[in-house]
Structures are given as structure tokens and as C-alpha cells.
């Protein structure tokens, strides 16, 4: 059984995640030997968001509503 984060902690995690690089943008040229570590950190945060019923792919638009592209559906 996994514990759910309280609302303030979840919001803080979502804010932090919205500033993390996308996994597709992480490469050894920019991150060097830390590339695998950065990818691991991104995956860890994604997993915690999913455990808290948050779609990681929707976090940026949720946190940055003012600059999120408008939905077309």
C-alpha cells in the first residue's frame, strides 16, 4: 500500500516536476556522467505522481495555466 501525499506536498512536487527536464531532452552531451542519475530522478518523480493519481504529462499545463496551449477539443 502506498501513502498519498497531502495537497500541499503534492502541489510542491508538481511545481518542481514542471521545471524538470523532459526525459527525452536528457542526453550525455548536456548532462555528462549524470545522465543516468537525472533520468532516474525524473522516473522517480513520475512514479510518485502516478501513485497520487496525477498524470505527469498534464502537470506542466496544470501548474502553468497562463502559458499552457489551449485545448482544441
Please describe what this structure looks like.
It is a single chain. Helix 1 packs antiparallel against helix 3 (35-51). With 73 residues, this protein is mainly alpha-helical. 53% of the residues lie in helices and 0% in strands. The protein has helices spanning 7-19, 28-31, 35-51, 59-63. It has one domain (7-63). The model has no long low-confidence stretch (mean pLDDT 92). The chain is flat. The protein contains 4 helices and no strands.
Share of residues in helices: 40-55%
How many individual domains?
A: 1
SSE series:
HHHH
Main beta-sheet annotation: none
List low-pLDDT spans.
none
Class of secondary structure makeup: mainly alpha
Instruction: Bin the strand percentage.
Output: under 5%
List the quaternary state of the chains. single chain
- Mean pLDDT metric: 92
Amino acid at each position: 500500500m502506498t501513502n498519498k501525499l497531502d495537497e500541499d506536498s503534492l502541489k510542491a512536487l508538481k511545481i518542481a516536476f514542471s521545471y524538470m527536464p523532459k526525459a527525452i531532452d536528457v542526453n550525455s552531451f548536456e548532462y555528462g556522467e549524470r545522465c543516468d542519475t537525472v533520468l532516474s530522478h525524473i522516473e522517480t518523480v513520475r512514479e510518485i505522481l502516478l501513485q497520487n493519481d496525477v498524470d505527469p504529462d498534464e502537470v506542466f499545463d496544470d501548474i502553468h495555466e497562463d502559458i499552457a496551449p489551449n485545448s482544441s477539443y
